[in-house]
Amino acid sequence: LLSVNAAAPRNPASTIKLLTTWLALEQLGPAWTWPTEAYLLGELKSGTLSGDLVLKGYGDPYLIRERLWAFQRDLKNRGLRQIDGNLVIDNSYFLDEYVDPAKFDGRGLRVYNVNPSALLVNFQAIQFQFVPDPKAGRVDIIADPLPSNLQIDNRLKLRKGRCGGYQNGVAVSTDGAESRDKIIFSGNYGANCDYFSLTRSALSAPAYAYGVFQSLWEESGGKLSGDWQLGVVADAAEPFATVESPPLSDVIEYVNKFSSNVMAQHLLLTLGAEQFGAPASREKGRAAAQTILQSKGLYFPELILDNGAGLSRDTRISAASLAQVLLAASASPWEVEFVSSLSLAGLDGTMRKKFRDSELTG
């Protein structure tokens, strides 16, 4: 009935996730899962590993701390209690394509700017809670989770007055080190503020994985005596234990409802690895996307997919092409899984505050 500039390439921002998640469903299927494996480099005797523990990731987009804790519990149930060595991080399944987290918008500590990693724990996120203590004249900071290798420099001052202002007066920074192992909080915090929290990223992906692993491990009575290092496990090695991710049908719900950039990037990288072999790369992911589209009879000459998440100045697709994606999804065997991954206007996800007073939500 009406078409205005439908073929013009536009920057779609996060709506490009509709394409990425549909491609993943079509290629991998809704039951697809990602493993994370643990290997022992040494002898396990009487609960003690005389050597290193290796964690090998394959791009699980949802290895949150609760699932890491459950994985640790499985390791302990298999007889591992003390690790007299290092934690070796094998993230070789993804090519190291590091991008400065501050490059996109200068906000390098924001979780939406986190880089992909084959072993990504908890989105590299930490929730910082600020609790004023007027009697002591200070503001306490609680980090959850608290990586064992993260320093928190609390320079906040408690001032009389109401709660308000940008981030309740809390400024967040680092000491400029590339490791990002020190987070500095400064500013004036209103004494009338009952409670405030914000979420930020810290460290590098391997350092964060180590810090959270060690904290959780030792909280539950285990011991890890060493530091972390990168390594690659031998192809012939047999894993000591394995944990599987939630199925893809669940993962795309987190991607689409809550617009997770790093999870969307993991989907694109996984497509590349499955189509062209590991290590996964953005280039392989983009090539895999074009192959899948062409197999469905879809040709989008204007498409620039970049990282698959929309966190890009370069991504382009036309309204007509994105509409074809939605039509193809509606005709797919996985239509129900795809539709259920979308936000409900006025109810949940990124649309929870939209259209509340419109006929769309009744």
User: What structural category arises from helix and sheet content?
Assistant: alpha/beta
Strand tally is 15
Computed CA radius of gyration, to the nearest angstrom: 22 Å
Strand content: 15-25%
- Main beta sheet strand tally, sense and closure: 7 strands, mixed
Oligomer: single chain
The residue ranges in which pLDDT falls below 50 over 5 or more consecutive positions are none
Q: Give the helices and strands as they follow along the chain.
A: EHEEHEEEEEEEEHEEEHHHEHH
Note the total helix count.
8
Helix content: 25-40%
Q: What distance separates the N and C termini?
A: 26 Å
Shape: globular
Question: How much is the average pLDDT?
Answer: 94
Question: Describe it for me?
Answer:
The protein is an alpha/beta fold and 362 residues long. The protein is built from 8 helices and 15 strands. The strands form 4 sheets. Strands 2, 3, 4, 5, 12, 13 and 14 form a 7-stranded mixed β-sheet that branches. α1 (17-28) packs parallel to α5 (261-276) and α5 (261-276) packs across α6 (282-295). The longest helix is centred in the last third of the chain and has 16 residues, at 261-276. The chain is globular, with a radius of gyration of 22 Å.
Explain briefly what this protein structure is.
The protein has 362 residues and is an alpha/beta fold.
